[in-house]
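Figure caption, in words: inputs first, then the predicted bound structure.
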Amino acid sequence: MPRIIAVANRKGGVGKTTTTVNIATAMAATGKKVLVVDLDPQGNASTSMGINKRGRMASSYEVLLGEKSVAEAVVWTEVPNFSIIPSSPDLAGAEVELIDIESREFMLKKALLAGAINYDYVLIDCPPSLSLVTINALVAANAVIVPLQCEFLALEGITDLIRNINQIKKRFNPTLELQGVVLTMYDKRNNLSQMVEDDVRNYFGKKVYQTVIPRNVRISEAPSHGKPVLLYDFKCPGSQAYISLTGEVLKRERELLAC
Ligand SMILES: Nc1ncnc2c1ncn2[C@@H]1O[C@H](COP(=O)(O)OP(=O)(O)O)[C@@H](O)[C@H]1O
Ligand SMILES: [Mg+2]
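Bound structure (adenosine-5'-diphosphate present):
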């Protein structure tokens, strides 16, 4: 079975999609077979991997509702070892359709158990909410990565997410772990970034990765070229930070598995 990691934060624009796509790319570069599940109706992970609307046979929406298998929805990307289940705008309505299903929290888990056995890692790019769709991701996951943008009120909403993770642990998924918290869009010329970093390290301690992702224009340019920044500009500081972060994530995975 693959290790399943959800990338979640109820806020939008904090770097969930960027983090998902680039960790996936760096993992794939080390020879791991990686599947990204795009669970955001906006589909930014799919478009930033160059998967246009026509290339999407089926989507995470049908997979979530049990209408299509993982194999039917998977699309290969230009990165070897990296495939993706694209999203569809229909996902925005999945919440309502899931309500009537008895095992509504377990739909994604069931689909991945049946169809993702040949992958080493599954990374789930969550929508910016604590909806039933995000709950499906957290129920399916072994671990969660939380990106936090270095800005005022970065920790706002995080207590809700942590409470949510603990509730899901209690009710549905006792082995769910917080893999770690990653600080994104760090600007070293800005005192606020340093203050946010101090606050977050105080609050989460060792759970915060040593690697901090800098604010880097190459990262924001990459999606419009349909590429992860690691392919767009390997040498830029953003790419180097994501390589270092992936090293830490894989190291923690080994530690979590050894427990
Ligand atoms: N480290 C960074 N430096 C500069 N721009 C970034 C960085 N990380 C993300 N971005 C940009 O910020 C926006 C939001 O990031 P995204 O990963 O889509 O966040 P989320 O998935 O949480 O909504 C995107 O336009 C992305 O390209
Ligand atoms: Mg996103």
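Residues 3-258 form a domain with the Rossmann fold fold (CATH 3.40.50.300).
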